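Design a sequence for this backbone.
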């Protein structure tokens, strides 16, 4: 397949040359990883290993990765914790900001001269010494383009990694550009079986998951914010700890699809009193809403984190949306 980006979009050549010249590369993806995080990191690691580069993949957290990511090749070798070797290049994938690297953030901040940032979030400030930050459907799209410049061919394992990020970050191809379908066709031609991949990555939930999801959905509240309507769901610590990641992502997607709602909001209690907030909309730019609270993301999907009582967090978000509504 041909190139996915137009000439001049991103300095792929410089990034590829630096990676090929490295003796060791430490790939870091974001905490509370999703399929694009692990898929982009693992695909890059697999590609570089074919060139003889020593590579490891790290996540700056101690909690294990979600079980729905178990089929992504290489996930079992991900190193968890706060250790970052002093040698080699550091590459972050799918990390919209430095804080998304979790426990590794201090070490990465001190290693900016050997840091390459690869990401697709429009809010990314470019916190590396070299940055390959481009608007695209997923970070795995950027990794696929980079492989052309690395001179690495697709393998079934790499194809699955790339597909994992693509299919999940586009909501099963519900939003994106024609590029996503061209890439998906190439990945299917290289061994990806879409039905089983979809089941493993997005569809597998248990009876207990369904029960917990029902309890969360039953607690939905609808709030007016100016002339906009917010549908708000809360997943407290006790429910979140009992759900697999597929169930959590399903709730977030339900928030987007609610009839009569302009913005879907899910507050997830990562630990007592600390909430990760997911925003979804087809009406407003939720990346701007998230940015007002120190976060970021894409126009239809974004997020941020907030500490304190959840009602205070909801009230603060409501005020931000009211201010945005007044400008529409």
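Sequence:
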């Amino acid at each position: 397949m041909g190139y996915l980006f137009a000439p001049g979009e991103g300095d792929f050549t410089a990034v590829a040359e630096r990676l090929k010249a490295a003796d060791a590369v430490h790939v870091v993806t974001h905490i509370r990883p999703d399929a694009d995080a692990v898929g982009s990191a693992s695909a890059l690691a697999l590609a570089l290993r074919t060139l003889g580069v020593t590579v490891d993949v790290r996540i700056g957290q101690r909690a294990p990765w979600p079980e729905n990511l178990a089929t992504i090749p290489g996930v079992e070798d991900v190193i968890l914790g706060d250790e970052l070797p002093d040698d080699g290049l550091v590459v972050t994938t799918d990390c919209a900001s430095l804080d998304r690297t979790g426990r590794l953030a201090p070490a990465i901040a001190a290693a900016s001269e050997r840091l390459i940032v690869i990401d697709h979030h429009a809010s990314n400030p470019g916190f590396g010494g070299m940055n390959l930050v481009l608007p695209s459907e997923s970070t795995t799209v950027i990794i696929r383009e980079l492989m052309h410049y690395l001179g690495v061919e697709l393998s079934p394992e790499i194809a699955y990694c790339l597909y994992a990020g693509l299919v999940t970050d586009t909501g099963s191809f519900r939003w994106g550009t024609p590029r996503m379908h061209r890439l998906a066709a190439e990945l299917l031609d290289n061994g990806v079986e879409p039905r089983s991949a979809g089941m493993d990555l997005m569809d597998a939930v248990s009876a207990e998951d369904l029960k917990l999801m029902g309890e969360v959905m039953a607690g939905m509240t609808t709030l007016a914010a100016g002339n906009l309507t917010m549908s708000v769901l809360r997943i407290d610590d006790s429910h979140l700890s009992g759900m697999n990641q597929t169930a959590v992502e399903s709730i977030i997607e339900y928030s987007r699809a609610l009839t009569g709602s302009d913005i879907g909001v899910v507050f997830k209690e990562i630990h007592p009193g600390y909430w990760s907030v997911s925003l979804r909309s087809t009406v407003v730019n939720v990346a701007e809403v998230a940015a007002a609270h120190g976060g970021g993301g894409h126009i239809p999907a974004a997020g941020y984190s907030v500490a304190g009582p959840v009602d205070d967090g909801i009230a603060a978000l409501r005020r931000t949306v009211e201010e945005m509504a007044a400008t529409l």
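The domain at 207-326 is CATH 3.10.310.30 (Diaminopimelate Epimerase; Chain A, domain 1).
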